[in-house]
Amino acid sequence: MIRLTPDNGIPRHILLMMAIMAGFTVANLYYNQPLLDLICKDIGISHVEVNFITVITQIGYALGLLFIVPLADMVSLRHIAIVCMSAAAVSATAIGFAENVWMLWVASLTLGFSSIMPQLFIPMSALYSRPENKSRNMGYVASGLVTGIVSARAVSGYIGEWFGWREMFFFAAALMLACLIVTLCMMPQVTLSFSGTYRQLMHTVVSIFVLHPRIRLYSLRPAMSFASMMCIWSCMAFHLAGAPFHARSDMVGALAFFGIIGAIAASGVGKFVPKVGILRMSVIGGCLQLLAWASAWLLGSTYIGLIMGIILADIGAQCLQVSNQSGSLQQLPQATNRVNTIFMTTLFIGGSLGTFCSGLGWSMLGWDGVCLVGVLFAIAPLLLSACEKNDNVNDNLKPE
């Protein structure tokens, strides 16, 4: 079995495995989005109740990030993979058998909680890569994650339309068991960086958050961007179901393929971070998301407008996430999993907030309300970047 050591490089096949497994696992959070209209009609619940399924799944993920990811500094990744992927398979099966909204909510919470493996792979790619390749390799794994996010919507849209929304989650359960087998066969040995109790470990997470304002900034900025990206997807099924589209869930899946284009286009973002700098990458990402929402609003009654919005929103979010996550992890390389806990928990709290607020925007103003919420979240990273520049806390536009 391969043993990795910090800053000594990662074999390509291990990096590829982490990117693929990250994509398959994070997909659990997004299978429900194209299926919301089908679930709503089958279970007999309101749009607000069914939209809350997505919110709860992301809340579960944020909780998993907070309470499980730090364990990677003191517990074997193989043990974490066994527990999490098995629990994800059970949770997806429970969703497939759910008969009421309460069962859906509980199973969605546990599915999100147990789907955190991608956030163990990304800090691995940073910690064990050679110094000159850290941002690039993080970008590769993060691109696998983003590809999984958008592919999940495409796959679930088609499976939901052809076979039913329940069958989609039975497929997800089987996929998690297959991923567990592959991960256990290929997972390298790594050095644990923390010895102590779980309580002491979590206390260090709190201390890092309190004592490092730059980590807080690097976490909050992409969280607002991720919230903006989530807005465009959380109500897409409702938007396409109405006039002028009158489309089915498979059309949501078809649009998701264009999200894959955005993910591929953004796959090389990481290698530009040392040259362009974190602040400039953040500004570029925020501006791309504003262009995305301009397209989604002005041309929101056409597929072309939605496609342009999807691609630009994904690229913008990737610019912010990869650059800020790279800078965040480099603040404390000896505690990458705990720093990543702060980063990703903040990110998915932002995603949950974006999903929830876009649902409210939809209920009040329809697609115009969703666009308004998305624009507000896209502006937030730009305001944070302006404050960073004005306060002269910029680190010369490059990670330390």
Fold and architecture overview:
This protein is mostly helical and 400 residues long. It has helices at residues 12-26, 36-43, 47-67, 77-97, 101-113, 118-128, 134-162, 165-186, 198-211, 213-234, 236-241, 249-265, 273-276, 278-298, 303-329, 336-365, 367-390. It is globular and about 55 Å long. 57% of the residues are buried.
Shape category:
globular
Quick one: biggest sheet? Answer: none
Content-based structural category:
mainly alpha
- Terminal CA distance reads 33 Å
Provide a brief overview of the structure.
The chain is mainly alpha-helical. It has helices spanning 12-26, 36-43, 47-67, 77-97, 101-113, 118-128, 134-162, 165-186, 198-211, 213-234, 236-241, 249-265, 273-276, 278-298, 303-329, 336-365, 367-390. The chain contains 17 helices and no strands.
Summarize this structure as a short list of keywords or feature phrases.
400 residues, disordered C terminus, mainly alpha, globular
Mind sketching the topology for me?
Elements: H1 12-26, H2 36-43, H3 47-67, H4 77-97, H5 101-113, H6 118-128, H7 134-162, H8 165-186, H9 198-211, H10 213-234, H11 236-241, H12 249-265, H13 273-276, H14 278-298, H15 303-329, H16 336-365, H17 367-390
Helix pairs in contact: 1-6, 1-7, 1-8, 2-3, 3-5, 3-16, 4-5, 4-8, 6-7, 6-16, 7-8, 7-12, 7-15, 9-16, 10-14, 10-15, 10-16, 10-17, 12-15, 14-15, 14-17, 16-17
